[in-house]
């Protein structure tokens, strides 16, 4: 265990050790989660600063277990001391729904007489119940049932053939499943019934494509090779690439977690972020008809972005030389298991990093960029989320998310009016409007933990056109507003001022610009939460009410919709709204966390069906006044030629620059060759 | 000539033929431009519909020539008839500044006594005048000089050594150059002088990097190869790739022009856009001090995005298998010349195109995407603009622009206050705030020329929380506003409603969604024009006053700031504001053009200096209700496995899908191999 980094996820051995200790003390339980309880920041920072002297943080397991009668236990197990240091019965909460919890429901609904009866009403004979499927969702919150009983709602579908896409045959009723008794306790039936669709299947699998004319045959191979391997080094889970250094963690809730992110600036590893992750999301659907208001999944808090993650060994999720990392989890019975290749780490060409040509003499420099991508893909029932954490050589961190998979669908009758709440993407298939709102948790560490967040708005200068101060009216500037109190650090996006946010260290000024060293959040896909203030989603997803919230750092504050999200009523709102309190806490020049909610609003169209082309979304974290100059100037150029060399071409002058400018065409191994080879076509 | 497509740029032979005819008729002139006069739309559409029957459009040269006394002639030469069909003396205009025009200025300023005197005042001895450089800009508009005389302003710099970056040594005065007499007619001298900076050079060339520790040596080669060549076919300049078909044009103003863009939908080439191009841009600077208001270059209208384009043979601007196209232009003397490799056409891997995994049984499909990139790079004095027109297999067209090159800089004294109008990016170097605003001209042809533009806003549903119609407050929908008159088609961006615009054909509904077939403009980098209404930039750059303008199609309306942009006063505003007129013209279900102004506001930081890491910006044109389903379903998957096959694994069932699912691992040439090979690391 001494070889593990304090932030490394629990190993399978550690998980089973933790379970063993709990079992000994508390007997038979169902395990919901056994994950790393991250060391307290102060202790870990001290240890990292001096690994020799300070006590190494203990390995501690954070345990969520469920006993009979949906009793929920939260505990902590010190694996070094081999003892349980905390064990509490937590009243009035429901932990997230695991894949195992989901798997059961389909089997139960198929056998339930009331469900069979409903299927018959829609035209499905009881002998066809094996063709009936369901996507079990958390119930969200339903005031009729509260949160005492652990519930799921079953979104119902039908498959004429096992290989048909069920989303073309949605059923109009919705059973409620009791996870404790494995019973259907209620079925929501709409006032207007919608018999099973008679439309032919709308499939995307190879047999159906072959039937409809087959696959394209004119796509030629495009190969990406790295004959000398990757450019990054791994020390355990700490990655070192192009001056970047950071730890790659992973847990059942957030999936990928990046910690202690630093950039080597002239020999010094300068801290930038202490911790970055996606901590929550909510996907509200826009159809007001009961019971669709329950469709607003918190995919991370109610299911787990780690639990749902794909094993990337099957498909072709990355190209190039790949390094994979596995993920270890606990199952219901308390046994550990692995998801192989949960994380993909690879490099990609990034196109032109910088270029300039002097129009006088065609002296030129062109330098090609490389990027490092840390990615995972998770499947939330119908949807796929592809998450790419991208590191650039110029100090930029980019988060790209691609949405693909399949639209959530509901039944509609021929000629039925969607009333604008959805789109008929195929006969009988109503794809409801929805939003995907992600919550990015940024714990900045800009040259140290004491940071201040500034709001930056592009503003017109004072002075009317014709005035002495602004005669031609062309004055404009960056208006910066520091957030000093939590109440001030609650903000919406403003496209009309190209609003951005700077995470700055006001104790350290850039020697040239005399402005605080900072990293800027540049995010342009920032729709407001469309469900209304005071409504169910607004109450449950407090983090999504605004684009930005800033709070003082607290070790306990990771999950902005609460630790246990399913069946929360939002009365009171859990997580971020609690932490904001009266808003009087200082966030000025102290250890702060920036919570950013971003995403998109999706009005479906037939092009998104039967499987959706990936829709990309991105945001940037860019150094501003952090470096004294472009930190990527020492990336070997593909080609460089100076004015004196151009003269030199005639009079035979050569110098150091000449050596570099021809690098592009020499078989060296410092990257220039690769760039160079693009000059002759690869 | 019969082999040329009517939209092909003029060949060198055609250019010289046109010049020959003009010379014969009008004697000695300086040539500003000789470019293709595109066939009138109606005539070309008729010919394309039936190339055999209809008369083939003549090849016509559009000529701009300048005579003594800055007399400007606009003419048309019919190359088939070999005669001049139009020749006019155009009063009161100045055609754009060519590279030749720019080259002269530096030589003149170095010899001008008044300039030498100013240099001496700043501490540059007259024997060092060969170290003095200037970036000549159009003067924009200076009310003191009007537009009768053809003028340029010389932004002055100094180089201690020929290889030093001059932008670190800006000089504080600005000579005005008369292009007709080659004289300096005036020098703008600031009230406070700023002697030559004593700071050491801030260079990015290889010698200076070697000095400061040298290049990174840990970047391993990343090779991209296409052993079987590219997947596109070219018939002249008409490209056929993955169901897309379009013509690639190029001219001195707009650079790349894409025409007659169609997508093959089940055997039918469906029209989408008649013509797409960047037609104008303006780069206003935000410092109100005289004479910086003159810094607001119209890079396309005042210099030409074609004239300034880079030859891509030198550096490594693209990777993979590249197809290049050259560009032919006229010089001042009337001779034609080529820019080799002005356009780069290549394919790139596009990551995951779509993916879905069924959580029940891990049945899965993952399909990798490919994209086609048509690109050019042009250098506008200090800045580089990299323009990428990207075609995706799902029917999406993406425009990506990367900004790189060098910041425009001005001198500042030690301790001088920038007053927020700029940033000290290096001692003595003030980089002024600025915007890059591009005008994208979209001539939609969505299943035909008669189209209507709709504004789409994401809106909350009616009904308060608790009301019968919206009990839980979760109702939201896409509010669509059709633009029926030109006055209605003038709109700003609204981030709070995630505003997009649909170019729709209301005469044709999608059979499933019953909504008009359309293409959606999704653009999120849309700052307002920051120079104030009524001010100089606002008057000259009418197109930039709003994010969107829609006008009825007119063959003559291509350049939204006017045909001749330099030295326009904006009184009255040229181009788009003229075309808008009283706004009463119908744009409902007729042939329309959508003008979209987008870009970014740049507040410089030291990281952007001495050469700026590429800053990317992108927008999408996406099919909505245009196709009946995802049009990329027939792209060969990297891997596919259906539920029945998973059962089959035990009982030996195989079928068509099995063939496909293993394609990934078979050496075929239909693209699957490439995707497949990524599974084992390339």
TrEMBL record, chains A, B:
Sites of 2',4',5'-topaquinone modification: 383
GO BP annotations, alphabetical order: amine metabolic process
Cofactor binding note from Swiss-Prot or TrEMBL: Contains 1 topaquinone per subunit.
Keyword Repeat attached: no
Domain Copper amine oxidase N3-terminal: 95-196
Annotated ranges, domain Copper amine oxidase N2-terminal: 5-88
Protein name: Amine oxidase
The organism of origin for this protein: Xylona heveae (strain CBS 132557 / TC161)
């Amino acid at each position: 265990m001494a070889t593990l980094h304090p932030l490394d996820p629990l190993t399978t051995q550690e998980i089973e050790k933790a379970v063993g200790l709990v079992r000994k003390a508390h007997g038979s339980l169902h395990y919901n989660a056994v994950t790393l309880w991250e060391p307290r920041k102060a202790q870990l920072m001290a240890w990292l600063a001096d690994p020799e002297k300070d006590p190494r943080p203990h390995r501690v397991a954070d345990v969520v277990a469920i006993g009979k009668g949906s009793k929920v236990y939260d505990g902590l197990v010190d694996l070094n001391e081999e003892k349980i240091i905390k064990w509490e019965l937590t009243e009035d909460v429901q932990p997230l729904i695991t894949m195992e919890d989901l798997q059961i429901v389909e089997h139960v609904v198929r056998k339930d007489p009331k469900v069979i009866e409903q299927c018959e009403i829609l035209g499905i004979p009881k002998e066809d119940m094996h063709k009936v499927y369901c996507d079990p969702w958390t119930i969200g919150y339903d005031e009729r049932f509260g949160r005492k009983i652990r519930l799921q709602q079953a979104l119902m579908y039908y498959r004429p053939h096992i290989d048909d896409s069920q989303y073309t045959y949605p059923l109009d009723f919705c059973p409620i499943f009791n996870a404790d008794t494995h019973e259907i306790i209620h079925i929501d039936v709409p006032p207007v019934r919608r018999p099973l669709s008679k439309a032919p299947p709308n499939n995307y699998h190879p047999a159906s494509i072959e039937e409809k004319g087959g696959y394209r045959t004119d796509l030629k191979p495009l190969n990406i090779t790295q004959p000398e391997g990757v450019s990054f080094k791994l020390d355990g889970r700490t990655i070192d690439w192009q001056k970047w250094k950071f730890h790659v963690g992973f847990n059942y809730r957030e999936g990928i977690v990046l910690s202690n992110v630093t950039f080597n600036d002239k020999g010094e590893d300068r801290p930038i972020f202490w911790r970055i992750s996606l901590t929550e999301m909510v996907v509200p659907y826009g159809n007001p008809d009961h019971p669709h208001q329950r469709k607003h999944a918190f995919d991370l808090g109610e299911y787990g972005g780690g639990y749902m993650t794909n094993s990337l060994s099957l498909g072709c999720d990355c190209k190039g030389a790949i390094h994979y990392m596995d993920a270890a989890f606990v199952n219901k019975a308390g046994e550990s298991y692995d998801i192989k290749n949960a994380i993909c780490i690879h490099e990609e060409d990034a196109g032109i990093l910088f270029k300039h040509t002097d129009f006088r003499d065609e002296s030129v420099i062109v330098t090609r960029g490389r990027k490092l991508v840390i990615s995972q893909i998770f499947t939330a029932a119908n949807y796929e989320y592809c998450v790419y954490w991208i590191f650039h050589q110029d100090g930029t961190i980019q988060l790209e998310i691609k949405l693909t998979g399949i639209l959530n669908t509901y039944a509609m009758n021929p000629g039925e009016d969607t009333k604008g709440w959805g789109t008929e993407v195929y006969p009988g298939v109503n794809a409801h409007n929805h939003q995907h709102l992600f919550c990015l948790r940024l714990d900045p560490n800009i040259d140290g933990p004491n940071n201040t967040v500034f709001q930056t708005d592009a503003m017109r200068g004072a002075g009317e056109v014709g005035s002495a101060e602004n005669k031609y009216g062309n004055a404009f500037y960056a208006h910066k507003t520091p957030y000093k109190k939590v109440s001030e650090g609650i903000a919406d996006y403003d496209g009309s001022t190209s609003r951005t946010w700077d995470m700055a260290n006001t104790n350290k000024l850039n020697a040239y610009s005399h402005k605080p060293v900072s990293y800027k959040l540049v995010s342009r896909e920032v729709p407001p939460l469309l469900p209304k203030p005071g409504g169910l989603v607004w109450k449950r997803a407090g983090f999504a009410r605004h684009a930005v919230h800033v709070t003082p750092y607290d070790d306990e504050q990771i999950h902005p919709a609460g630790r246990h999200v399913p069946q929360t009523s939002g009365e009171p709102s859990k997580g971020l709204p609690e932490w904001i309190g009266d808003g009087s806490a200082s966030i000025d020049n102290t250890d702060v966390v920036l919570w950013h909610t971003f995403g998109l609003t999706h009005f479906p169209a037939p092009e998104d069906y039967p499987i959706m082309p990936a829709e990309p979304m991105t945001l940037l974290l860019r150094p501003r006044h952090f470096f004294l100059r472009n930190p990527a100037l020492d990336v070997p150029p593909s080609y460089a030629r100076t004015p004196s060399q151009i003269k030199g071409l005639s009079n035979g002058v050569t110098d150091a620059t000449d050596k570099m400018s021809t690098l592009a065409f020499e078989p060296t191994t410092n990257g220039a060759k690769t760039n160079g080879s693009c000059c002759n076509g690869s």
